[in-house]
Amino acid sequence: MATPRVLDVLAERGLKATFFVVGRQLEHYRTLAARAAQDGHWIGNHTMTHPRPLGLREAGAADEIEDAQALLGELSRPEKLFRPSGAGGDLEPGLLNHTAVGTLIGGGYTCVLWNAVPRDWEDQDGWVDRALEQIEERDWTLLVLHDVQDASAARLEEFLDRAGDVTFRQDFPPDCVPIRDRKLVGPIRGLLA
Ligand SMILES: [Zn+2]
After folding, report:
1. How would residue 1 be classed by pLDDT, with cut points 50, 70 and 90?
2. Domain carrying residue 88
3. Locate the NodB homology domain: which residues (predicted)?
4. What's the gap in Å between 122 CA and the centre of ligand 1?
5. What pLDDT is attached to residue 120?
6. Å from CA of 50 to ligand 1 middle
7. 86 Cα: distance to centroid of ligand 1 (angstroms)
């Protein structure tokens, strides 16, 4: 179980992150999600069953979003942070579909994408170098790491040490947030199925 270790490392350094949680996992790990929220992390919705990708089928997309949100309950941020489930880390067609977009806009969700995926789940050593390179590439990086087995946990402290004087912040670069306040505020055409 990687999450307690990740939470310990973040707490030791006073860092706050957002955990996008798969609803199905909440059934088993609600206490852990509650601890994350209590530690000051934001808890977001990452679909009910993590379809790969979410937008693959129109039918079911609304339930994937709303069932997970119902399970999150008071763990959720008021702005209802939501991240679509992908097929392999890329921002690509199929991540969203019209039903999902309608549900997000109509339901007042905040859709949070990303701009850096160092692929910790594929390479639990090499992701550190990649993440450091990706942080260098832009002014404001939204870095996706995974608190699952054999992903970021083992080298998280090394990464934070080597990141040096990088400033970590909890909010999101605006160009990673295409839907908020019941409006489409960024381009999503390339993400539709
Ligand atoms: Zn995911």
Report:
1. confident
2. 3-185
3. 1-171
4. 13
5. 96
6. 6
7. 6
